[in-house]
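Quick illustration, no need to memorize.
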Amino acid sequence: MTSMPEILHITLFANPVCNIPGYRHFMVNSLPGLKALDYHVITDEERIEDASFGYRFRGLNEFMKLYIPDYTHENAAERHLISLDVDVYRLKRIFERNSPSILIQSLYRGYRSRNFQKIYFNERKTKIIKIQKVVRGWLCRRQIMRDLKALLEVEGEADLLLTND
């Protein structure tokens, strides 16, 4: 079987090989591309020696159960291939949802993404505040100039505002 590295799912259930102690461990570690064995998705805990990630990630539990319908009644090869693609998709999604390493990677990516966004928005916020300060200063100076002109016109000293230009 090691000559078939691209095999994704194999069922040896009810085969005499299943009675050999350590058969599942041997199969999991000798076929690295194998995703499911005997109607159960292979977990990271089964691949890593002496690993224990908790009940949810343990091999042969109900979260890792793979339900594959009986395709013997289908005659059309196209329908069988479509069903096979759906089953492979389901197999990969079960593995992704129940793999601690993939969950850790997704949590870390989310953490990094949030931190990047936080840095980006903080920089953006400081730039916006700077623009607001400049505009408010310009508006304030413009209002003061208008008030000064009005005051000088009332006092009759509008010629003080004349420039040498």
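The chain has two domains: 9-98, 115-161.
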